[in-house]
Amino acid sequence: MKFYEYLSKNELGQMHEATLQLLENTGIYATSERFLGKCAELGLKVDGHRVYFPRALVEKGLSTAPSHFSTWGRDKKYEIKWGEKKAYNHTCVGTPFILDVETGRKRDVLMKDLEDFVRVADALPNTDIVSCIFPQDVPTHAVVTMQTAAMVKNTTKPLRICIESAHETNFIIDVLAAAVGGMDELRANPIAYLEISSVSPLSYAEGPGNGLIDVVEAGLPLGVIPCPMMGATGPMTLIGCVTMHNAEIVAGIVIAQLLRQGAPVIMSPRVTFMEMSSGLGLWAAPEMGLAAIASAQMALYYDIPCTVTGFSCASKINDEQAAFETFYNSFLPAVGGVDVLGASGSLDNALISSYEKLIMDDEITSMIQRTLRGDAVNADTLAVEVVDAVCKAGAGSNFLSQKHTLRHVRTELWQPLVSDRQSYGAWEAEAKSYPDRARELAKKLLAEHRTDPLSPDALAKVEAAVQAAIDAGE
Amino acid sequence: MSRILREIADAVEAGEVDDARELAQEALDDGESPQDIINGGLLAGMEVVGKYFKNGEMFVPEVLQSAQALDAGMQVVKPLLAQGDVTNKGKVVFCTVNGDLHDIGKKLCIMLLEGSGYEVVDIGINVPTADVVAGVKEHQPDILAMSAMLTTTMGAMDDVAKALKDAGLDESVKVMIGGAPLNQDYADRFAAYYSDDAVSCVNLADSLMSA
Ligand code: B12
C-alpha cells in the first residue's frame, strides 16, 4: 500500500525549516537546573532559562536517532517493530473515569478497574500496547509505580508509561526491571517506552526535563508527547500548531541524541484544539485526525518512529458519533504512515474509558491493519485465468468451487470481532446493538481471561519496588 | 443612559481596545462620573459579551479581546475613583496546585472572572501548599480558587484546606475548586465549592459573594 500524502515533500520541508527557525531563534524555556546544565554541556546555547539550538546540532541529533528498534511484551511473542508503520493500537492513558460495565454509568476509576481493564486489553487480539487508566483510590505519590506494577501483573503485552514527575521514575524502572529479571534484560529488550510531556509553547518544566535525562540515562526508549491546544497554547492554524510542537519534540530528541547517540526515541505529536464557544479541550474529529496525519508525515520525513492519538472522540457514550469520530481520527493517520495509534477505549476527549469502546477500537484496528496489508497486484490476484475458466465452463458455473477461491478464501476477507453480519431474521431474534455485543464480550473476558502470572520471585521483587515507592513518600 | 456610555459598551462588546480607551476619556471630559462609566459603559458591555458567550455566539478569543477593551477603559477611569469606591465584585486568588502544570482551564476561568468584574491575582502553576497559604495571607481575597487536572495532584487541595485552617484563615476565605477529575463530592470533603466550567465558575463566585 502506498501511504497517503496529505502534505507534499515541499510542504514538509517548509515545516522543517520553520522548526529549525523556532529552535534557533526562539529556543525552549526550561526550569530544571540539571536540565539546563546538561544542555550547556552538550553544546547548546543556554542563556538564563532559554536554550537555543544551532542548526548543525539539530541536524546532527536528528541524524543519529534510530529509524527502527523493537519493544517487547513480558511474553516475547509480542514484539512492537517501531519504524515499520504498522499502526499498532495502544490503550488510553490517564482517564480518571470509566463507564461501569454493569450500570453503564460514569464513575471514578479504582485500582480494581485498572487491573480489570488491563486484563481485558491483554485478551483482545488487536490491542497491542497497554497503557493505564488512572485509579483514584491509591496514594498519589506512588501512583504511577503502582499502576506499572498492576500492568506487569495483568498483561504480558508491551507497555507505555507516562512518567508523571521525575521523583517516581526510578521506582517505575525498578518495577519494570523486576518483572523481566533485571536491568540488563530490560535494557536489552525493553517492555515499555516512557513518555514525557513538554509544556506548550516551547517549554520543558522541571519534572519532564529531569525525566527525559533519567530515561535516556537508564537506556530505555523515550517518547516526547507535547499536547498544545490550537489557539490556546499553540497558534490557531493547524499547520502552525503542528510545526510548533514538532519543534518541542525535535528539541527533546536532539537532547536525547546528544546525551546518548542512537538512543531509541519516539515522536508522539498530539495537537488538540478547543471548543471556542465553551473553552472545552477537544480530541474530536476531524482536526485531531488531520493534525495527526500532518505530524506523522513530519516523523516520516525524519524517519523517526511515531505515535499519534487515533481512537479519540468527544462523544460521551458508545454511539454513532463515537464510532465515526474514532474511525476518522485513526484511519487517516494510519494511511499516512504511523507506528502507533493511541487512546483506544476512550470517550469524552480522553477523560472516560469504556470496555465497549476498547472492543470497538480493537476491531477498527484490525480493519486498519487489513488496509495497511494492501492488495498486491500480480497474475494470481488479477485472476484472469480463473475468470476465463469459469466463463468458458458454460452457463451456471461460478467461482465457489474453484481452487483459486479455496486458496484465497481464508486470507482475503477481513473477519469482525463482534460486528453483526447475520441475516435480518437471525439478528432480529435478539436485536442487539454493537455496544450490547461488545459489553457481552467484555463481561465474558472479565470472567474468563487469566493472564500468565509473574514468577513468584519476580512478583516479590515487583512488590518490593512498589513498597519502596510508597515508603519514599511517607 | 447617555449616548457615550452606550458607545463605550459597544466598544467593549466589539473588542475595540483603542475606542474603549478614547471613549472612556471622552466621557470623563464630558463630565460623566467614573462609577457611571464603569457600570453603565464598560461592565454593561461586558455583560452582553458574557451572555453571547454563554449562548455559544461568541468565541473565547473574542471574549478575551473584549476583556482587553474593558481593561483599557478601566485604566483610564480607575485613578479617578474616590478612595473606598468599590471597583470590583470581589477579589480572587487563583492557582494550579502543587505538582500540576495544567493551566489552560485556570486561565479561562480568570478571563471570565475578570471580565465579569472580579479582581483576580494569579499566583501561578505548581504552587506548593505553603505558598498558596502565603498568597492568601498577602492578598486577603474573598475567594481562593484552585485548579487541578491530575488525579495525583487533586489531593493537594485537601492539604491547602488543612493548612488554611491551621493558619486560622479558613473563616475569612471561601474555597472553590475545579478541573476534570474533580466533582462536588470531592469538594465536600473539605467544605469547598466545585463547578465544572468557566461560565459556571463565575456563577459560583457570584453565589459565594452573595452568601
Ligand atoms: C493540555 C493537557 C496537557 C498539557 C498542559 C498544558 C497547559 N499549559 O496546561 C501538558 C502536555 C503539559 C500535559 C501534561 C501532562 N498531562 Co495532561 N492533559 C491535557 C489535556 C489534553 C487538556 C487539559 C486542558 O487544558 N483542557 C482545557 C481546559 C479549558 O479545560 P479544563 O482544564 O478542564 O478546565 C475547565 C474546567 O475543568 C474548569 N476548571 C478548571 N480549573 C478550575 C478551577 C475552578 C476554581 C473552577 C471553578 C473551575 C475550573 O473550568 C475550565 C474552563 O471551562 C487533558 C485531557 C482533557 N481532555 O482534559 C490532559 C490530562 C489532564 N493530562 C493527563 C496526564 C496524564 C498528563 C501527564 C501526567 C502526562 C505525562 N506525559 O506525564 C502530564 C502531567 C504534567 C503535570 N505535572 O501537570 C491526564 C490526567 C490523568 C489523571 N487522571 O490524572 C489527562 C486527563 C489526559 C489523559 N487522559 O491522559 N497535559
What would you say this structure looks like, in words?
The complex is a heterodimer of chains A (474) and B (211). In chain A, 47% of the residues lie in helices and 13% in strands. Chain A is globular and about 85 Å long. Chain A is an alpha/beta fold and 474 residues long. Chain A has two domains: 63-373 and 460-469, TIM Barrel (Alpha-Beta Barrel); 379-412, no CATH class. Chain A contains 18 helices and 19 strands. Chain A has a four-stranded mixed β-sheet. With 211 residues, chain B is α/β, with parallel strands linked by helices. In chain B, 55% of the residues lie in helices and 10% in strands. Chain B has a five-stranded parallel β-sheet, with helices on both faces. Chain B starts with a helix and ends with a helix. In chain B, 48% of the residues are buried. Chains A and B meet through loops of A and helix 5 of B.
Give me the CATH superfamily of the largest domain in chain A. Trimethylamine methyltransferase-like
Oligomer: heterodimer
Round the Cα radius of gyration of chain A to an integer and report it. Answer: 23 Å
Order of helices and strands of chain B: HHHHEHEHEHEHEH
Which protein chains make the most extensive interface, counting residues with beta carbons within 8 Å of the other chain's beta carbons?
A-B, 28 and 25 residues
Uncertain spans of chain B: none
Alpha-carbon distance between the termini of chain A?
55 Å
Mean pLDDT metric of chain A: 96
Per DSSP, what share of the residues of chain A sits in E-state strands of 2 or more residues?
5-15%
Cofactors, ions, other ligands: cobalamin
